[in-house]
Amino acid sequence: MTLARWPAWLFAALAAVIIAALLTVPGVGHAAPALLSQGRAATASSTESAAFPASSAVDGDAGTRWSSAAADPQWLEVDLGAPHTLTQVVLNWEAAYAKAFQLQVSSDNSTWTNLTPVTAGVAGSQTLTVTGSGRYVRMYGTQRATQWGYSLWEFQVYGDDTSCNTADSALNQPVLASSTQDAGAFPATAAVDGNAGTRWSSAASDPQWIRVDLGSVRQVCGVELNWEAAYASSFQLQISTDGNTWSNLTQPAAGVAGNQVLAVSGSGRYVRMYGAQRATQWGYSLWEFVIHTVGAPPTTTTPPPGNCPWVKSTAPIADRVNQLMAAMTNAQKVVVLHGNGATGPYIGNTDPIPALCVPAMGLQDGPAGVGDSLDGVTELPDPTAVAATWDVNAAKNYGTVMGQEFAGKGANVVLGPTINIVRDPRWGRDFETYSEDPYHAGQTAVGAVQGIQGQGVMAQIKHAAAYNVEGGASRGTPSDNVIIDDRTLHEIYLPAFQTALTQGQAASVMCAYNQINGTPACQDSAVMNTALKQATGWDGFVGSDWGSATGGAPQLANGGLDMEMPGGAFFGQALLDAVNQGTVSQSTVDDMTRRVLTQMFKFGLFDHGATGATGAVVTSAAHTQVAQDVAAQGSVLLKNNGVLPLSTSGLKSIALLGGDAIDPQNIGGGSAKVNPSPAAVNPINGITKRAGTGVSVQWVAGAGEHVQTPDIPSAVALAQKSDIAIVFASYGESETDDLASIDLQFSQNDLISAVAAANPRTIVVLNTGSAVTMPWLGSVAGVIEGWYPGQENGDAIASLLFGDVNPSGKLPVTFPRSLADVPASTVQQFPGANDRIEYSEGMNVGYRWYDSHNITPLFPFGFGLSYTTFGFSNLTISAQANGSATVKATVTNTGSRAGAEVPQLYIGQPAANGEPPHQLKGYQKITLSPGQSQTVTFTLTPRDLAHWNGAAWTTNAGAYGVFVGDSSRSLPLTGTITVTTAS
Ligand code: BGC
């Protein structure tokens, strides 16, 4: 008899009986084999590395795998949580499968019974029917098919599980609704969050539905609807395998205010409440929508991509963010607004939200490459060396290496670059930042940020703003209070940040430890909201420094901070409380969340799963080559009486002196410290290799930062009998400590003077993070400032000494003759006193100070020699009434070697504007062969001639000087731009 021949009335009556029976006897019927292993605890005899954990074989993601060590035997075991009758096991092998293995089961995790005889694996998927029961199931591999370990994409254990599980299978699963009354207050997710105090409410119209995705087809055996007062007077429960075609689990039923328990039976992946008629004038409103299934509930580990409509969607990012945010509760929003407090895998970590496919984020130091003690990385030169190249492309190459290495380590955010202004040569972090000039710092930052972000990793530029003193233990305490006028803040300390956001499109900014005129930087709305967000239209997020979020959630959130690191003292429950109390508005929390999510979408975090691993080796020959190139191009030749470049012809002996020749200061300390790779080369090795077998290269320490007992006479003796003496001297810097002096320490000045007295062909190589004094300058033949040159130090310095590379670096900071000459020479200015750090030098920072006070520096900003010479000619200026101008100048290589020069353009404002005499507004690095000329073009806008008037940038009418040359103190070409239309 077929159904078609039954009378309709009989069919309906029978159906009603069946449904009635189902309503009273939950979970009847024989369920299909259930996947018992997914998301369960898995263990293994070994793992190849942390990147291939046992859990990857039971995570439902066929793109991640467990791999064992390469030895026999090995096993992978899953704990099903309770005893089960088993029917089937699926092994999804990677290429490294088992040539021989057994499936085994145990009820106590100690005595094992074979489920299969010894079986051979196959690369690919292998389905085995089994008979047996127990709680623990394992694959026990006795022989590998390859030289690798055992490797399983997935290990699936199926069994006959017929009970209707009392756990809630809908809990935290992806959910969608036809509408919400208010996405912020009543999102669909509130109905599956396990919290009967939050609810979904629809718009006030019929019909409306709410749909839960169980992740895979499952036997549904019960539903509970916990209605608010606004219930459905008529609804149906429906089920679907594809989310499109629905069949009814219930006939139309009436809701009841309160909890309604329904026994149902059906199989499918999606379950929905379809409301046809509301009982009140309001929408449909559910406190909770609970679903019971046969077998364990779905795991809440990351669902495979695609379960959330905003994942891998081609919709515009703003739409994807809106879509996701509509599904988020406030409790979920704050998860992306703070770190989880863990110190691994990265120095900063946010938690994932598996139910919404929101991935975790990893933030890692820092500005000079992958830091925080990870190995297998390239120790790049310090950022000062990058700035000293005066070459945006070099900064970009450096950033590209960083981006590749951070991506390879699986980090999503680089905590860097550091772009704070070098206000004083004693700051312990000078080595990790760029320049004393805001334009130069900004352009270098743009190059580095573009390089980093071009590799799919976010850059977090730091530390906003006016953070220029460590002050030892006083960092971040009440005494770390910068007193600064608004014009100086806007003209000197903010522009590099703004440029990195607008031109560089940096994803993120870190706010600093210090206070700005009594307001903690991470609460400073004038900086974060006004200057960084509103003035630039930037859509990224501000993160705190580690522990720099202080005060309270309202002060921080309303001040413009978006993400707290490393924990959630303020942006976890405290932020939720603040929203409930009305001290932080819903729209502020939404804006914070939107900023973080926007960048996560932009950088593909939702579309590609986690990439890279902290244990990966990410350094490479190409990366160490960039390290060497930047070290060489950033080194500045400060003096040369003709001794350089060295030639091996006729050269018999070189004396290397100083502890730094063998144990060099390649990088500074703190969060910018990077470990070297095994390829690192010290000066002794680099110079010996380059000098060749015909030259004797000998070394005596003499003195140095790490030399316990100075022995200057031995150094002198070696220098005396050598053709050339090269003294390596350094000054180490580190985060949290400022330098006490700018004079070289540990008898290094004595060593240099003594060696220079013994050998007229003495060359000094300095490895310092900023300016130092040079009392011996008049008696040495040559000086190269190499900054902290990174792990390729030896090869880089050898290439410069022997002229394989023609020096082209320029100083990014002024070198004063003595500490008394620096702009912040009083203790009130640096490091500060009485809870105040007075920025009383105002805009006169760096060369602006030396120029406006007519102080002759030891070496000026922008200065650097070459083994060739250059001439400047033909200045032409074509300007408009508002000051927009095109400036051209010709540069000629007047010497006999190819080399690179950096024409620099400075503007002098009319005296009435009250600005320092000269301000850098353009530069370019060009390479010229002997005799070659090139015309460079600079484009100026009215903003380049403007000053901050307290509320906006103003360009006054008047005559503006134009100066072009090769340093801030050598400007042979001069002209004028006359502004007649002020703006
Ligand atoms: C530093 C930051 C660094 C952070 C994480 C702080 O102490 O100031 O620059 O990114 O630590 O290591």
Topology record:
Elements: H1 8-24, E1 34-35, E2 41-44, E3 66-67, E4 74-93, E5 98-106, E6 113-114, E7 124-144, E8 151-159, E9 175-177, E10 200-201, E11 208-227, E12 232-240, E13 247-248, E14 258-278, E15 285-293, H2 317-326, H3 330-333, E16 348-350, E17 361-365, H4 383-388, H5 392-408, E18 413-415, H6 438-453, E19 458-464, E20 481-483, H7 486-493, H8 495-502, E21 508-511, E22 515-516, E23 519-520, H9 525-534, E24 541-544, H10 553-559, H11 573-581, H12 586-602, H13 621-634, E25 636-640, E26 653-657, H14 683-691, E27 696-700, H15 712-720, E28 724-731, H16 748-758, E29 762-768, E30 782-785, H17 793-801, E31 837-838, H18 847-852, E32 870-879, E33 885-893, E34 899-901, E35 904-908, E36 919-923, E37 926-928, E38 933-940, E39 947-948, E40 953-954, E41 958-965, E42 973-979
Parallel strand pairs: 17-18, 18-19, 19-21, 20-22, 20-31, 21-24, 26-27, 26-28, 28-29, 29-30
Antiparallel strand pairs: 1-8, 2-4, 3-8, 4-7, 4-8, 5-6, 5-7, 9-11, 10-15, 11-14, 11-15, 12-13, 12-14, 16-17, 22-23, 25-30, 32-33, 33-38, 34-37, 35-36, 35-41, 39-40, 41-42
Helix pairs in contact: 2-12, 5-6, 5-13, 6-8, 13-17, 14-17, 15-16
The structure holds beta-D-glucopyranose.
How would you briefly describe this protein structure?
The chain is built from 18 helices and 42 strands. It is α+β, with helices and mostly antiparallel strands and 983 residues long.
Offer a few descriptive terms.
disordered N terminus; 983 residues; binds beta-D-glucopyranose; 7-stranded antiparallel beta sheet; 42 strands; 18 helices; alpha+beta; 8-stranded antiparallel beta sheet; globular
